[in-house]
Amino acid sequence: MSPPLARMMDFDLSDEQREVRRTVRALAEQQILPEVERLEQQQAYPTELIPKLAELGLLGAMIPEQYGGSFTDVVSYGVICEEIARIDWVLASVISVGNSLAASSILAHGSDAQKERFLPGIAAGTCLASACLTEPGGGTDLGNMQTTAEKVDGGYRLSGTKVFISHAAHADLFFVVATLDRALKHRGVTAFLLDPKQTDGIAINEIPMRTLKRDNLAEVVFEEAFVPAEAVLGEEGKGFPILGSALDVGRFSVAARCVGQSQRAIDLCIPYAQERKAFDQPIARFQLIQQKITDMIMRTEQARQLVYRLGRMKDAGVPRASMEASMAKLAGSQAAVQNALDGIQIFGAFGLSEEYEIGRLLLEAKALELGEGTSELHTKLIAEYALGLRKQ
Ligand SMILES: Cc1cc2nc3c(=O)[nH]c(=O)nc-3n(C[C@H](O)[C@H](O)[C@H](O)COP(=O)(O)OP(=O)(O)OC[C@H]3O[C@@H](n4cnc5c(N)ncnc54)[C@H](O)[C@@H]3O)c2cc1C
Known about the structure:
Butyryl-CoA Dehydrogenase, subunit A, domain 3, four-stranded antiparallel sheet, binds flavin-adenine dinucleotide, Butyryl-CoA Dehydrogenase, subunit A, domain 2, 10 strands, alpha+beta, Butyryl-Coa Dehydrogenase, subunit A, domain 1, 3 domains, 392 residues, 53% helix
């Protein structure tokens, strides 16, 4: 990356946070990048790369040392998500689902036994997490959940179907939400923690996708799967607020991942525009190409500032920053999608060839725009918070 860009993105980080970026970027570029294209061709899950993330403490970035984690501050966690996502969508998702959705929820709402059972494994990479939220009938309207938890002797029986679940076939921990009574809508929602490998009545079926085939996105079917009473996270009927705070941290990490992908598009386009010639000169000389580079940098930097500000709010102890999380996620995902589009345009037809990475970024960016709240949802949420129609 050119020095002015490096200065821009690091200006407001501490020395320690800058060091985090340097270390994670070195891992990502030297050890992960050379493997990504092969994994992409083979449609293979990056199992062998996960221990490398654990060695550097990246899988426990939001987990305190007491439970085997490496937590320092939320901004550093954002920088980690940004740098890994700049190189690999799937590994960034492993980090973000484990830390944001699973570990943060367990730390905030889990029993001591749940913390001891799951957190050290998440940090060590021996307990991969999946969040089972979206259902075939819709992911945006989570209050209208159809998966039920029927109370039985000693626990619950879960029945229903979840779709588009990342890491499901590889997971040792499912963070699942189900309702005790559909008529109660969001007030019936309860969160559960379970090990799918030790629970009968769960079928995991891969969903054929046009992108991210190596993520093995799956449908997860619960067929009266029994979970003991201790599997409840927090309290019965309190799953919706737990989900809300989990998504708050989740959206922070997804927004940081979007910034990483947006930055990657810039980093790929600048040298290409300097080298590729048309009309006897580098295309970088054409104002219409320069306009795209400027727009790519501007939207990335704007999104990055929203992400770091959100991280700082969390580091300052602000308990919920849902409006700011929506702002960061909306700006980040729109930047990632538009940068991929502009990037493909700069590359011309090579942008669509398998030889170059830029084309792959587009559908991956679209996946970021859909996950953890679509752009439409965040647009609606921001206005509702601003208009006083919704509370943080
Ligand atoms: C790569 C990938 C990984 C994923 N991983 C996971 C995972 O690990 N766990 C998990 O649970 N889910 C996961 N998802 C699912 C994701 O969270 C959902 O796709 C998302 O929540 C949207 O839900 P939906 O696809 O059912 O769209 P729908 O909810 O059906 O929405 C369809 C369209 O309607 C719009 N819409 C809905 N409501 C409104 C409204 N009120 N106002 C305006 N527009 C509206 C939406 O924005 C969207 O454009 C993943 C998705 C992808 C693509």
